[in-house]
Amino acid sequence: MPIESQRTPLERRDLQEACRAVGLDPREARHLRTHSNEIWLLPRAAVVVRLSMNHHDVSAVTRMVRLVRWLWEQDLPVAELWHESPGPLVLSNGRIATYWRSLTVPEAPDYRAFGSLMRRLHQVSPPPDQVNLAELDPVAAAAEILDEEWPNCGLDRRFVADRLAEIGARLRSAPLSISRGLLHGDAHVGNLLVDRGRLVLGDWDSACVGTPAWDLIPTALEPQRWARPRAPYQAFVEGYGQDVTTWPYYRELRELVEWRRITERIRIAGHVPRAGRNLCRHLHTMYAGDLHTPWYGPEAEAATRGPQDFSTR
Questions:
Q1: Which residues of the chain have pLDDT under 50?
Q2: How many CB atoms lie within 10 A of CB 137?
Q3: pTM here?
Q4: Which helix (DSSP H) or strand (DSSP E) does residue 51 occupy?
Q5: How far is CA 202 from CA 68, 103, 219, 227, in A?
Q6: What is the rounded distance in angstroms from the CA atom of residue 19 to the CA atom of residue 4?
Q7: What are the pLDDT digits (tens) for 48-68?
Q8: Residue 221 CB partners (closer than 8 Å, separation 6+)
């Protein structure tokens, strides 16, 4: 996990409560980052404490913890819960704490190994019923953007509803042979960790069952939306054994993934500096059906210099 904080951490009293409940000492805690969770490292105990940003559904967090434990028991490449973890702990203000063994981040992401890791996960049989994973509905996941605050970018959100209705109609006619299986739900190199020399995936909050394309498309988007070289994605394809960009309905699923990413940025814009900086650019490219203009990288940074209006309406 990156050491540099992405925002000013919330009050330490929540961390202190989470630590007191399980006998940990928070005095030397270091704030690592804040995104969908607030992440703290306790270096002496080699424990990472994750605090939900909102009052999450504790049953959803419990399902995630059950899944991670089950995957760990199968010797699959997942981040490990702290061995003394009591499971999700609900704090007095409703936030939820989980406890993990501290791991390191790769010095440089190995995309071929990442592809092999994803292939292994996608070959896993669905977990037992008691894990109770949700079924991915890609259109519904993307459509959550319609319920979020809308950036004041000169575009009306009605065009999104029309676009999602079109995609939904096309996917409903998709052949039933579209594969499905266990999904990480938020698979990208930023969630890779190193555990005793092997790559593992952390951050399983979005795990579900559905089409593997949902896990593969974020990496396929890196050359276009992140302005990154194509060679790492080619290494990822070699590791996975297939290129998702050649799959049926890739274009439709790619757009749904992109809407989902924008939704996530809108949600955290009030917590993480710069999360909303490129939102207007993202929305204008989507409105234009532009698949190639970078959302991040030098070109995007140059295009978004100067005052930006990210008020919502």
A1: 1-8, 304-313
A2: 14
A3: 0.88
A4: strand 47-52
A5: 9, 10, 16, 25
A6: 22
A7: 999 998 766 888 899 999 999
A8: 254, 257, 258
